[in-house]
């Protein structure tokens, strides 16, 4: 992997990548060069045969991500082009392109072929919720403070929270409450509604447990794991009939893998299987 300005990328276990947002002095708040680089990181890992599962966390003790860097955002396209000679249609076109590009960067976590586990701690506001909902599995430290903060800065969340969070927790009333009020909710509430899978005592323990889970996933057939993520995401967004058909088409190719015989044989021989890179 190349080195990056705003992210640390390491491999703490075989086939496990750890992506860490590295702007702790600004509470890991994001501005445009960061989300563009985020997409670059995850697009690269998606294709890397050396990564089979990914942990995503934030550097420092205080925040996973405090949201947008408001000062930087106020100077950018989020409030529209500075040339006021543009008419409304042209301003709207530029803002739409900007938002769609931003959405695509955050969607790179969901689009990534490899499972992504968010290890969350401390402040997790605004964009942090967008990032978390784009991951596959979320765990957090007990000190985590979540908030869908966008209404507090005068906008409706437009990078994924309102689109993905209802599907993650399956409770539209709760989502409306936290999105409309921007109130802070903690780790135990996040666990109760199903937003996170587990809560741990410290950030260090949270990251360690996320790496352990990623390492377990990485021992499985990459053909099976990547197919499972793809089919689950497709099924979330389509009727059962359509997703069953999609699964059949997918597995018409995937079932030809030699990983199946390798997995069955290792099970009979009571040993951990080894799978070729994908």
From TrEMBL:
- UniProt pathway: Lipid metabolism; fatty acid beta-oxidation
Q: Which family does it belong to?
A: Belongs to the enoyl-CoA hydratase/isomerase family.
| Top-level taxon in the UniProt lineage | Eukaryota
Entry's Gene3D superfamilies? 2-enoyl-CoA Hydratase, Chain A, domain 1 (3.90.226.10), Lyase 2-enoyl-coa Hydratase, Chain A, domain 2 (1.10.12.10)
One of this protein's Pfam families, by short name?
A: ECH_1
| Sorted UniProt keywords | Acetylation, Fatty acid metabolism, Isomerase, Lipid metabolism, Peroxisome
Gene Ontology molecular-function annotations: delta(3,5)-delta(2,4)-dienoyl-CoA isomerase activity
Q: Where in the cell is it found?
A: Peroxisome
Q: For this UniProt entry, what is the primary localization, expressed as one broad class? A: other
Q: What is this protein called?
A: Delta(3,5)-Delta(2,4)-dienoyl-CoA isomerase, mitochondrial
GO process terms (BP): fatty acid beta-oxidation
GO CC terms, sorted: mitochondrion; peroxisome
């Amino acid at each position: 992997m190349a080195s990056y300005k705003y992210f640390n990328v390491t491999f703490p276990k075989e086939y496990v990548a750890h992506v860490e947002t590295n702007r702790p002095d600004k509470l890991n708040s994001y501005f445009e060069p960061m989300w563009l680089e985020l997409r670059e990181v995850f697009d690269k890992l998606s294709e890397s045969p050396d990564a089979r599962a990914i942990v995503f966390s934030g550097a420092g003790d205080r925040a996973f991500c405090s949201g947008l860097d408001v000062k930087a955002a106020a100077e950018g396209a989020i409030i529209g082009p500075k040339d006021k000679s543009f008419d409304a249609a042209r301003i709207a076109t530029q803002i739409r392109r900007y938002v769609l590009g931003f959405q695509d960067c955050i969607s790179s976590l969901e689009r990534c072929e490899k499972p992504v586990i968010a290890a969350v701690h401390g402040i997790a506001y605004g964009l942090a919720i967008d990032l978390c909902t784009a991951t596959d599995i979320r765990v957090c430290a007990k000190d985590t403070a979540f908030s869908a903060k966008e209404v507090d800065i005068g906008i409706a969340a437009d990078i994924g929270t309102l689109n993905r969070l209802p599907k993650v927790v399956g409770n539209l009333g709760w989502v409306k409450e936290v999105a409309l009020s921007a109130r802070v909710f903690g780790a135990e509430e996040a666990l109760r509604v199903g937003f996170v899978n587990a809560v741990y005592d410290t950030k260090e323990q949270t990251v360690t447990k996320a790496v352990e889970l990623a390492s377990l996933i990485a021992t499985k057939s990459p053909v099976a794991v990547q197919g499972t993520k793809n089919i689950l995401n497709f099924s979330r967004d389509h009727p059962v009939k359509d997703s069953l058909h999609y699964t059949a088409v997918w597995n018409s190719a995937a079932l030809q893998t030699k990983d199946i015989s390798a997995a069955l044989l290792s099970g009979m021989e009571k040993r951990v299987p080894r799978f070729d890179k994908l």
